[in-house]
Amino acid sequence: MEEVEQFDNISVEELAEELPENSPRYVVLSYELNHSDGRKSFPLVLVNWAPTSSEIGLLTLHASALINFQNTASVSKVVEVRDGPEGLTKEVIDSKLS
């Protein structure tokens, strides 16, 4: 696996628009999480971008490497996104981390 691109200061919605519509990707995201008690934390989140419009062979290969990638990146939180850009929003990530 290789780093394809790196983005700084990009919103979750902008990131969703940058990802390909027909090809799965892993995205490691340092995410600003605002807690109900006013604290902020910055957990690493693995976005498993696997649009349903991707080729079955690519999705199978991508799925088979997920656990290995998660362990290599030392990420405990995984957000599955299959719905395209509509499925990757700040609200979706917040709900998965709460």
UniProtKB/TrEMBL annotation:
GO terms for molecular function: actin binding; Arp2/3 complex binding. Gene3D superfamilies: Severin. Its main location: cytoplasm. PANTHER family: GLIA MATURATION FACTOR (PTHR11249:SF2), GLIAL FACTOR NATURATION FACTOR (PTHR11249). This is ADF-H domain-containing protein. It is found in: Cytoplasm; Nucleus. Keywords: Cytoplasm, Nucleus. It comes from the Eukaryota. One of its GO terms (cellular component) is actin cortical patch. One of its GO terms (biological process) is actin filament debranching. Belongs to the actin-binding proteins ADF family. GMF subfamily. Residues 1-98 form the ADF-H domain. The keyword Cytoplasm applies. Pfam families: Cofilin_ADF. The keyword Transport does not apply.
